[in-house]
Amino acid sequence: MEIPTIVGAGLIVIGAGLGIGKIGGSAMDAIARQPEASGKIQTAMLIAAALIEGIGFAALFAS
Amino acid sequence: MEKLIEQFSFGLFFWQLLLFIAVLLLLRKFAWKPILDAVEDRESGIKDALAAAENAKKEMQNATADSERLLQEARVEREAMIKEAREMKEKIVADAKDLAQAEADKMIKQAQLAIESEKKAAVADIKNEVATLSLEIAEKVIKGQFSDKAKQMKLVEEMIGDIKLN
Amino acid sequence: MHGFFETDILSDMQKPFYVKVLLVVTLLLGINAFAQEKDHSSSEEKGSLKTEIKEFIGHHLLDSHDFTLFTIDEEKNEHVGFPLPVIIWDDGLKVFSSSKFHHGESVAEVDGNYYALYHGKIVKTDAEGTINYDEDHHATNVKPLDFSITKNVVFIFLVSALMLFLFGRMAKSYKTSALPKGIGRLLEPIVLYIRDDIAIPNIGKKHYKKYMSYLLTVFFFIWIINLLGLTPLGVNVTNNIAVTFALAILTYLITTFTANKNYWKHIFWMPDVPVFMKIVLAPIELLGTFIKPFSLMIRLYANITAGHVVLMSILGMMFIFKNWIGSPLSFGLAFALSLLELLVAALQAYIFTMLSALYFGSAVEEHHDH
């Protein structure tokens, strides 16, 4: 791995991390607001996080 | 990416695909279908049982209501019957009383009639006896008196006068 | 950040407890690192250990043609394990035992042809085992089609057999009673979870039944094989792109072949948008249908690979530190990560199944007015 690649990978990780963090935070807020819907929120959260993760991994492998 | 393509092993892909599809088909036939069917059967069974229980409960309630109603009806009927019986009893008693009274009256009347007729018969008997006696006496008297004519006449007159009085 | 710098200025009395702990740990680590430098004054040795660990991890992640449980002595080529059959197609089917390779140390000669192992792959070579390279340092030797029963294939066989055994027994236990017995009691809630919380909400009550077999099989396959990958025998299967590719392509094929008119309409002629947008959207949507299974493939592969690399690196740190603070630390870390990997094993199976169900759901979605 050369330096630009590593930097790129770092950027990807930062981006994906921020995205997943935002999803997690929002999901927590939503669960706090509606604890009875926690199951559905968790499912939606996992799917959204998985999608971002997929893109992140794809970018990591492409770099 | 290059590394990924380089790492790709066709043999492993082939075996994975082959085995996975084989497992999928076998499991579908021998596991998933029976399992899901059994679970579904059980679930529908539970649903049916619940519905049946609900029905039974309803029927129970209906039956209780029915029996309650029947009981009420029976009670009313009993009351009515008792009332009727009492009335009947009273009527019977009253009837019996009336009948007895009537019978008694009748018997008294008959007795009175009998007494009356006995009395009459007795009176008639006495009359006959008296007449017979009177005749006998009269005969004897006549026999004694016939010797004396004047006396006889007087006697006869007296006697006739007596009879008229009677 | 501000607070962090401030703690240095503050007197010892005012420092919070955790800062003290951190300071002590940092100091100890520093001293240890210093001491270590002295002990192994030749940093070359340490470097070689690092590369050795790196190589070991790389080797662990690769598929292999023999089932090696562990290696006694790398130098003397002493391994505990057993060879597996090699099946290659090179002008006709050739089957021989992988013991001929002697763990990649020697060239196998079959019917006058010579084969060698190069980075875990079989290449055709000559009697001396020469490997030719091009400018980019890639081997240019002919690679025959390799259908060998490798370590991973053995594991796929085992997991398949295990699944057939488990679920066959579970299915059988329903014949005698409405409630499952034995292992079925553990598995039934999971089966029901997949049906009620993955299949039905995503696909819909009308169509979910025909996808249940695939969803259940793929979930349990990935889950069991991920879990087995975490055992000390640790044969990773899902960190092979070929395996995840096979699973993803099945999802893609099932989606494509069960899709209804509405699905294709949404791809090629998106309703309720201007004609220009329809033309622009069509290729994007078409590309999307390939990206979906592609991301499934990459996600599973990358998660498992990354998990194993990190776990093994931390385990390797134990041998690099070789002291009383680093090794327990890395042990603790490895333990925590193993627990996390247990979760990841199930989570990845869940995500794969969930997203597959989502794609199937979009394929059979009925037309409804927006």
TrEMBL record, chain A:
<keyword id="KW-0813">Transport</keyword>
<keyword id="KW-0375">Hydrogen ion transport</keyword>
<keyword id="KW-0138">CF(0)</keyword>
<feature type="transmembrane region" description="Helical">
    <location>
        <begin position="44"/>
        <end position="62"/>
    </location>
</feature>
<dbReference type="InterPro" id="IPR035921">
    <property type="entry name" value="F/V-ATP_Csub_sf"/>
</dbReference>
<dbReference type="InterPro" id="IPR038662">
    <property type="entry name" value="ATP_synth_F0_csu_sf"/>
</dbReference>
<dbReference type="InterPro" id="IPR020537">
    <property type="entry name" value="ATP_synth_F0_csu_DDCD_BS"/>
</dbReference>
<keyword id="KW-0066">ATP synthesis</keyword>
<dbReference type="GO" id="GO:0045259">
    <property type="term" value="C:proton-transporting ATP synthase complex"/>
</dbReference>
<dbReference type="GO" id="GO:0005886">
    <property type="term" value="C:plasma membrane"/>
</dbReference>
<comment type="similarity">
    <text>Belongs to the ATPase C chain family.</text>
</comment>
<comment type="function">
    <text>F(1)F(0) ATP synthase produces ATP from ADP in the presence of a proton or sodium gradient. F-type ATPases consist of two structural domains, F(1) containing the extramembraneous catalytic core and F(0) containing the membrane proton channel, linked together by a central stalk and a peripheral stalk. During catalysis, ATP synthesis in the catalytic domain of F(1) is coupled via a rotary mechanism of the central stalk subunits to proton translocation.</text>
</comment>
<dbReference type="InterPro" id="IPR002379">
    <property type="entry name" value="ATPase_proteolipid_c-like_dom"/>
</dbReference>
<keyword id="KW-1133">Transmembrane helix</keyword>
<feature type="transmembrane region" description="Helical">
    <location>
        <begin position="6"/>
        <end position="23"/>
    </location>
</feature>
UniProtKB/TrEMBL annotation, chain B:
<comment type="subunit">
    <text>F-type ATPases have 2 components, F(1) - the catalytic core - and F(0) - the membrane proton channel. F(1) has five subunits: alpha(3), beta(3), gamma(1), delta(1), epsilon(1). F(0) has three main subunits: a(1), b(2) and c(10-14). The alpha and beta chains form an alternating ring which encloses part of the gamma chain. F(1) is attached to F(0) by a central stalk formed by the gamma and epsilon chains, while a peripheral stalk is formed by the delta and b chains.</text>
</comment>
<comment type="subunit">
    <text>F-type ATPases have 2 components, F(1) - the catalytic core - and F(0) - the membrane proton channel. F(1) has five subunits: alpha(3), beta(3), gamma(1), delta(1), epsilon(1). F(0) has four main subunits: a(1), b(2) and c(10-14). The alpha and beta chains form an alternating ring which encloses part of the gamma chain. F(1) is attached to F(0) by a central stalk formed by the gamma and epsilon chains, while a peripheral stalk is formed by the delta and b chains.</text>
</comment>
<keyword id="KW-0813">Transport</keyword>
<dbReference type="GO" id="GO:0046933">
    <property type="term" value="F:proton-transporting ATP synthase activity, rotational mechanism"/>
</dbReference>
<dbReference type="GO" id="GO:0005886">
    <property type="term" value="C:plasma membrane"/>
</dbReference>
<dbReference type="InterPro" id="IPR005864">
    <property type="entry name" value="ATP_synth_F0_bsu_bac"/>
</dbReference>
<dbReference type="Pfam" id="PF00430">
    <property type="entry name" value="ATP-synt_B"/>
</dbReference>
<dbReference type="InterPro" id="IPR050059">
    <property type="entry name" value="ATP_synthase_B_chain"/>
</dbReference>
<keyword id="KW-0375">Hydrogen ion transport</keyword>
<dbReference type="InterPro" id="IPR028987">
    <property type="entry name" value="ATP_synth_B-like_membr_sf"/>
</dbReference>
<keyword id="KW-1133">Transmembrane helix</keyword>
<dbReference type="GO" id="GO:0045259">
    <property type="term" value="C:proton-transporting ATP synthase complex"/>
</dbReference>
<comment type="function">
    <text>F(1)F(0) ATP synthase produces ATP from ADP in the presence of a proton or sodium gradient. F-type ATPases consist of two structural domains, F(1) containing the extramembraneous catalytic core and F(0) containing the membrane proton channel, linked together by a central stalk and a peripheral stalk. During catalysis, ATP synthesis in the catalytic domain of F(1) is coupled via a rotary mechanism of the central stalk subunits to proton translocation.</text>
</comment>
<dbReference type="GO" id="GO:0046961">
    <property type="term" value="F:proton-transporting ATPase activity, rotational mechanism"/>
</dbReference>
<dbReference type="GO" id="GO:0012505">
    <property type="term" value="C:endomembrane system"/>
</dbReference>
From TrEMBL, chain C:
<feature type="transmembrane region" description="Helical">
    <location>
        <begin position="241"/>
        <end position="263"/>
    </location>
</feature>
<keyword id="KW-1133">Transmembrane helix</keyword>
<protein>
    <recommendedName>
        <fullName>ATP synthase subunit a</fullName>
    </recommendedName>
</protein>
<keyword id="KW-1003">Cell membrane</keyword>
<dbReference type="InterPro" id="IPR035908">
    <property type="entry name" value="F0_ATP_A_sf"/>
</dbReference>
<feature type="transmembrane region" description="Helical">
    <location>
        <begin position="153"/>
        <end position="171"/>
    </location>
</feature>
<dbReference type="GO" id="GO:0005886">
    <property type="term" value="C:plasma membrane"/>
</dbReference>
<dbReference type="Pfam" id="PF00119">
    <property type="entry name" value="ATP-synt_A"/>
</dbReference>
<feature type="transmembrane region" description="Helical">
    <location>
        <begin position="333"/>
        <end position="360"/>
    </location>
</feature>
<dbReference type="InterPro" id="IPR045083">
    <property type="entry name" value="ATP_synth_F0_asu_bact/mt"/>
</dbReference>
<dbReference type="GO" id="GO:0046933">
    <property type="term" value="F:proton-transporting ATP synthase activity, rotational mechanism"/>
</dbReference>
<keyword id="KW-0375">Hydrogen ion transport</keyword>
<keyword id="KW-0813">Transport</keyword>
<keyword id="KW-0066">ATP synthesis</keyword>
<keyword id="KW-0406">Ion transport</keyword>
